[in-house]
Amino acid sequence: MNEKLRYWMLVLPGLAVMVIFYIWPVLNIWGISVTEPAAGLGNYTRMFDSRAVQVSFVLTFRIAAITTVACLILGYVVAYTIANFAGRVRPLMLGLVLLPFWVSVLIRSFAWIVLLGRSGLVNDTLIGAGLIATPIRFMHNELGVLIAMVHVMLPFAVLPMLTNMRGISDSYMKAARGLGASEWRAFREVYFPQTLPGVFSGGLLVFVLSLGFYVTPALLGGGRVMMISEYITYQIQEFLNWGLGAALSVVLLLATALVLLVAARFVNLRKTFLERSS
Amino acid sequence: MDTTDHAFKSDLAEIAAEKYKAGTLSRRGFLSALGALGLVPFLGDRAVAAPTELVVCNWGGQASDILRDLLGKAYEEETGVPVRVDGAGPSPGKVRAMVESGAVVWDLCDSGAGSAIVMNGAGVIQDIDYSIVDRAKVLPGTDLPFGVGNYVFSYALAYNPTMLPDGVPETWADVWNVKDFPGMRTFRKSVRGQLEGAALAMGVAKDEVYQFLDDEGIKAAIAKFRELRDNIIVWGSGSESQNLFLQGEVAMGNIYSTRGYLLKDQMEPGSFRMTYAGGVLQPGIWVVPKNNPAGPEAAMRFIATAQDPDLQVEWFKAIGNGPINPAAAARVPAELAAWNPTSAENVAKQVIYSDEWYGRNQVSAEELYIDALIG
Fold first, then answer.
1. How many CA atoms lie within 13 A of A23 on its CB side?
2. How far is A142 from chain B (nearest CA, A)?
3. Which CATH class for the B6-153+282-347 domain?
4. pLDDT tens, residue by residue, B2-29
5. pLDDT recorded at residue B38
6. Which candidate from B247, B248, B373 shows the least CB-CB separation from A224?
7. Would an 8 Å CB–CB cutoff place B370 in contact with chain A?
8. Based on the structure, what is the number of domains in chain A?
9. Which pTM does this prediction carry?
10. Has the ipTM of the complex gone over 0.90?
11. Based on the domain organization, do A10 and A69 belong to the same domain?
12. Would an 8 Å CB–CB cutoff place A51 in contact with chain B?
């Protein structure tokens, strides 16, 4: 047995688990989408005819897009600060970025319910300060979903950008300043273009993860902000509509693949997903 | 199809945890409720119940404890046979599997009319012996040949008067009147007990609700929800509906009467009220599996014992289940009478849940309903 083959043998158990418990069931799901309740593309035509499905897809992409933009803006500032000015408190700031990962998404979403409710902390404070007379509706709508999702997704935006920024030597900026560029111009024309790979990686990561998000929208959306993953759950669990649910998940997967395909033109995918720790 | 509201049944189980937290349920009671909830396999410690006991199966939680401590004790005093309550949830599938495999453990099951029809069709339940069980001691219409009423719950209009300073909703038409009654509303994330309110809001008489809800009527009722949807937060579980009121997220809504019964004690005085006007009243049904271990007579006797009006009142006081025996209403303490879904006065205001209608229309209506709420 040559050496290469021996290493493949080591991978085999993992591969088998993957094929038997993941790839095979997923293929089955695809099968269900064209066989239940009747063979053919009935589920797909039904899906494209359904206004609710369209609304849910548009909503899903809108929320994912807004979340991505918000995470990039907030995350950029954080990453920039940590990379360039944090100094000795850098480990602490990095820790604060990572801290939310130690708490489950479910708990964090419930925490937002405590904060954003009609009689929640935020509304109580605003009313107490005399800024508003009646509570603002921060949740049970799209706004609540967005607030909580930006919070959940922020680390996914910060980390790739931070990795990228820490790899940028400060001699470029120094050179630009030395040649007479203003600080803003040096940032805009020298530093910022170098951070674009990180921005794209972070944005892509957040966008793709947001597309399939379930817990946060389900808890903060008041049941009416139904993103596509919740809609799928509903079709399968409540209506036993395996066919339509499966067809929806195929379309979601294809849509995500399409996003990645388009993104591949701008982003080094290998770097984004495989070498994030580098 | 099975039209029984299993979600409601398991909702009673959740109430146990709340009672425990509030200190009204002992630790032992809570643990046994957890066991009853299925953390202990439903065949439990032995596969076949000894003939010297009677096993009643319901849906777990507080409801199981009350059944055991109240009805079970009364039955034991009367017959000397101890009662064990299994909270595993006697869904038609489980009962059928049990009967067909020949290992019947349950003598009596807390079910619903829709499930009873399904189980009777499958030939896995026995006819009720009306020489032992008294037809006069249940709400008219709940004395089916193969099942008989045990208790009642409703979908009722609940509201928070403190959030409605300019007047409170008395009817479903008021709930749809956003201008005069502002604030968020909550409805169930399912058509069960919900479309009826929309039909009433359109001026349909309460006895004609289900005739009205044909294909066209369903569309019209769902259009009403589409019209109201920006003011709607939906609830999925009973505890969710309770939370929405507790946190002041909604000013009014359509919730289980048993949750309303809890809220009246949990919310600040004057900040919670409930009316049965336009409510939807749904009876639970006892069924007896074929070849039940203790024999048919013992099971029938238990049903008869549970019909006792005083026991029915105690049952209502403990958990908010409406008495099935019309005679019990008069014995409900005056301060609680308004909360009883089966007082003559409240029954007269309500729509009686139609299992037949749900069997025919629920699936298609459900999808239209969700689609209307989201898009």
1. 7
2. 12
3. alpha beta
4. 666 667 766 765 665 555 555 555 555 5
5. 46
6. B373
7. yes
8. 2
9. 0.79
10. no
11. no
12. yes
